[in-house]
Amino acid sequence: xxxxxxxxxxxxxxxxxxxxxxxxxxxxxxxxxxxxxxxxxxxxxxxxxxxxxxxxxxxxxxxxxxxxxxxxxxxxxxxxxxxxxxxxxxxxxxxxxxxxxxxxxxxxxxxxxxxxxxxxxxxxxxxxxxxxxxxxxxxxxxxxxxxxxxxxxxxxxxxxxxxxxxxxxxxxxxxxxxxxxxxxxxxxxxxxxxxxxxxxxxxxxxxxxxxxxxxxxxxxxxxxxxxxxxxxxxxxxxxxxxxxxxxxxxxxxxxxxxxxxxxxxxxxxxxxxxxxxxxxxxxxxxxxxxxxxxxxxxxxxxxxxxxxxxxxxxxxxxxxxxxxxxxxxxxxxxxxxxxxxxxxxxxxxxxxxxxxxxxxxxxxxxxxxxxxxxxxxxxxxxxxxxxxxxxxxxxxxxxxxxxxxxxxxxxxxxxxxxxxxxxxxxxxxxxxxxxxxxxxxxxxxxxxxxxxxxxxxxxxxxxxxxxxxxxxxxxxxxxxxxxxxxxxxxxxxxxxxxxxxxxxxxxxxxxxxxxxxxxxxxxxxxxxxxxxxxxxxxxxxxxxxxxxxxxxxxxxxxxxxxxxxxxxxxxxxx
Length: 574
Ligand code: NG1
Ligand code: ZN
Prior knowledge:
By secondary structure, this protein is an alpha/beta fold. The protein has 20 helices and 19 strands. The radius of gyration is 24 Å and the shape is globular.
């Protein structure tokens, strides 16, 4: 498996820039793309090594998600489709930081492969690789493939796919029975992803309506009408990988009478740039409609995904053309003064929780014996969402630090774990114990069948905007809700986020799931004293794990107060 000379030769084509010191953060390795070829090559080595160590297929996704187009990144995927365990992050960083080829060989042999270095390489293992639409993708893909092949492991590129699709494929690959045909290992095609997700969706939805409106407009271009289902859904694809993939949902959504209109699809003729004034991160943080939405009427049902389509938020444009702007604001987003009425990841989580709650209430009680349901949030969850969970839904709630790996792990420890970051990244996880019970009960209980099908519709490996759109549309249709009805579940407290450039973000360390500052001494006391002056005030500051910045979050009774609280905390941080 391990030939030092081959490895050294391959590595010599990918020299690490001298002053570059990558670390594996919440988003994997991420940096300006020009710095990354050596890092991605070494991740190729590492993914191949992990495949050998675990005797299973692994994956690599090349993307910088919602970050600017000139950045890129790489994230490792484990055989179950989940993220690489945190215990492996230090050695990943060590490998990425090696200054020369000899060090790369040594770290890989001694720190990663160990005894396996002397075994022969199995011919049946593969590393599955995907990438987003960034111009740097081809060069970094070549680096990843070279890394995998340097360890004599099969490398399979799936081209431009969403991050959740790649995670799904890695899991699916490990569930296939190995075949002896052909030169390489048997691997799934992308179609298995659509077969699974759309298959579950079509079983959950009635057959297509016999009388579709001929021009697709009869159900109304706006969500402001009384009927919750059908109508037009405008999708902001962030000029990223989502555009091509979401197009494939068109026939499925027609089953609900929903017509998709895709915007920011990366069409060169329209000149839009990846994540630039568009995409889920922009919409959620700036609370503005994305570019390419000028003609979308106020009150229309819209959603936005990020560059690699693992985040999803919904929104309605407010104001401008009149429409039901006033009502939308009244219904819930005092935090969105002009521009949009936002339904963020918290709202998606609550919608899922309400619907799943409805189903759980219909299940035979013995099926739920000993079954634990929980909802996982971070400090960024709006206080009103947390209160709604606690007081109305009465669901156990867990707060974890920012970063999907923490939320995922917490959700995984329940039988049914609902987790979403406010920025729209999340999913619903089902335990094997619950699935086994649901399978056994499905024939006699429509509710058990429904929940079982939901587990097939919802990506079980990571948050997935594609499966998220289907889930939200299904629930709105089932409940006959408009965005206004959904928004009215609870009223968000006005909030404000700030991003501060500071000399050394490392000065700030936090505790209690990032809700309090531990260092520097005195900062937390100062924040606390300030917060106490604001009715319903809450605020925290934490170093970003993905950018060289400190983030401040504040919420309070009114937008002016939330802005003022954020500003005062920012002064204390500087
Ligand atoms: P940082 O930069 O650590 O705040 C951001 C998001 C996270 C998560 C990661 C990974 C916010 C406030 N933070 O992390 O939720 O999505 O990126 O992509 O949105
Ligand atoms: Zn993303």
